[in-house]
Amino acid sequence: MAVDPLIELRDVNKYYGKLHVLTDINLTVGRGEVVVVIGPSGSGKSTLCRTMNRLETIESGSISIDGRPLPEEGKGLAALRAEVGMVFQSFNLFAHRTVLDNVSLAQIKVRGRKKEEADQRSRELLDRVGLASQADKYPAQLSGGQQQRVAIARALAMDPKVMLFDEPTSALDPEMINEVLEVMQQLARDGMTMVVVTHEMGFARSAANRVVFMADGKIVEDRTPDDFFTNPHSERAKDFLSKIL
Ligand code: ADP
Ligand code: MG
Fold first, then answer.
1. Binding site membership of 42 for ligand 1 (Cβ less than 6 Å)
2. Residue ranges of the ABC transporter domain (predicted)?
3. Ligand 1 centroid distance, CA of 238 (Å)
4. Cβ(136)–Cβ(58) under 8 Å?
5. Which of 7, 145, 147, 175 could disulfide-link to 91, CB 3.0 to 4.6 Å?
């Protein structure tokens, strides 16, 4: 893929106290690329995601989004968080707000949109994730899969340049996983730049341009899915794949 880098991490190191949680991470994510991050529990996948929108600070190295270093604080940081959409395992919707409000609130607060404008955009996005008819419900009235699709719509409403997904289907009942993965597949087809931490290997095979395999805070392999799944190089990856496939 011709690289037009949207995210660049250079020699990134992060510690939690004495724990060296990210070691010499070098990663470039091109515009429109889908990078799936896999690896054992505790290998640093969530931390990696969280550094990319500065939910975590780093001790050394550099991270830039669209050619600009991550801002330290203040307005720049709020703008960055809007540009880097994040979807977590837990959906974190506002329980006492309708689905529509959940998607509109940050647009009004962070993007400065008028309520009517925000609501219109929210309805478009709810339609896109298959929830047009649920706009006036409250989160508790929705299934887990539906709530996660609202969370995706909410992130998209900020017009992000990139979407980070950290195990978006791990908390879902099995029958709801596909409806969320399908929304993500569609986003990928529409050209969204995505970094996705997941154990869904079917998704990795079909949607990813690259698979990044992490172990012990290091990127051990960074290859195409075909190449990775048919011919993992490292013992760590072979061992991991033998346990999950
Ligand atoms: P993964 O997402 O791959 O399971 P994480 O990034 O969550 O891994 O965690 C990587 C390592 O950092 C683990 O050993 C975890 O226990 C540790 N860790 C994560 N968050 C914190 C924290 N806030 N403080 C201290 N240690 C943490
Ligand atoms: Mg994690």
1. yes
2. 7-241
3. 23
4. no
5. 147
Rounded to whole angstroms, the Cα distance separating 178 from 187 reads: 14
Q: ipTM value of the model?
A: 0.98
Quickly tell me which residue has 């996660």 as its tokens. Answer: 148
Look at ligand 1, atom 15, and give the residue with the nearest C-alpha. Answer: 42
Q: How far apart are CA 52 and CA 41, in angstroms?
A: 19
pTM: 0.95
**The residue type at 29:** V
- 158-199 confidence digits (pLDDT tens): 999 999 999 999 999 999 999 999 999 999 999 999 999 999
Task: Tell me what pLDDT residue 142 has.
Answer: 97
- Nearest-CA residue for atom 7 of ligand 1: 46
pLDDT in tens, 92-142: 999 999 999 999 999 999 889 999 999 999 999 999 999 999 999 999 999
Do β-strands 162-166 and 5-16 pair in parallel, antiparallel, or remain unpaired? unpaired
Whole-number Å distance between alpha carbons of 159 and 187: 13
- Write the burial class of residue 136 (CB in 10 Å: 0-12 exposed, 13-18 middle, 19+ buried): exposed
